[in-house]
């Protein structure tokens, strides 16, 4: 076997999470996509949103969404994120964006805050709920 097949996987500092929600009828994004897709790059160590994107129809809507989300924590700041979306984003997709973000928060919580699970999604045999095997934490 060559050395390429035995290499360890590259450790990433961030993780990608996606969430989707049905869009209201009659808006451009719904005509194009039927659902809104939200993608967040998140630092798994603290839940901070490093980057954000969504499948809204205009670049301005995408920019406003990104500005409202980036730098916030998907778990601890969710109430403030929802409040800001309600206060500053007045597009027809507002509720769908919030629904997609809540789906992402659930995935983040299950993936990154569950001490019995590792980032690959496989049960970690070395770590239990007692925190054993968490060297350096």
Tell me about this structure:
This protein is an alpha+beta fold and 137 residues long. It has one domain (15-112): Sufe protein. Chain: A (Alpha-Beta Complex), CATH 3.90.1010. It has helices at 28-33, 59-69, 78-88, 94-112, and strands at 15-22, 35-42, 49-54. The protein has a 3-stranded antiparallel sheet with strand order 1-2-3. Helix 2 (59-69) runs antiparallel to helix 3 (78-88).
Helix percentage: 25-40%
Strand content: 15-25%
Could you spell the SSE succession in H and E letters? EHEEHHH
Average pLDDT: 83
Structural class by sheet pairing and helices = alpha+beta
Write the layout of secondary structure elements.
Blueprint: E1 15-22, H1 28-33, E2 35-42, E3 49-54, H2 59-69, H3 78-88, H4 94-112
Antiparallel strand pairs: 1-2, 2-3
Helix pairs in contact: 2-3, 3-4
């Amino acid at each position: 076997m060559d050395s390429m097949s035995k290499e360890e996987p590259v450790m990433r500092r961030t993780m990608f999470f996606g969430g989707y929600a049905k869009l209201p009828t009659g808006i451009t994004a719904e005509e194009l996509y039927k659902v809104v897709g939200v993608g967040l790059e998140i630092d798994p160590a603290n839940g901070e949103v490093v980057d954000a994107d969504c499948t809204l129809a205009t670049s301005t809507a995408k920019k406003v969404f990104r500005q409202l989300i980036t730098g916030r924590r998907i778990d601890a700041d969710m109430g403030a994120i929802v409040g800001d979306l309600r206060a500053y984003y007045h597009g027809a997709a507002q509720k769908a964006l919030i629904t997609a973000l809540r789906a992402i928060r659930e995935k983040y919580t299950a993936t990154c805050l569950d001490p019995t699970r590792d980032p690959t999604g496989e049960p970690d045999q070395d770590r239990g709920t007692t925190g054993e095997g968490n060297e350096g934490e």
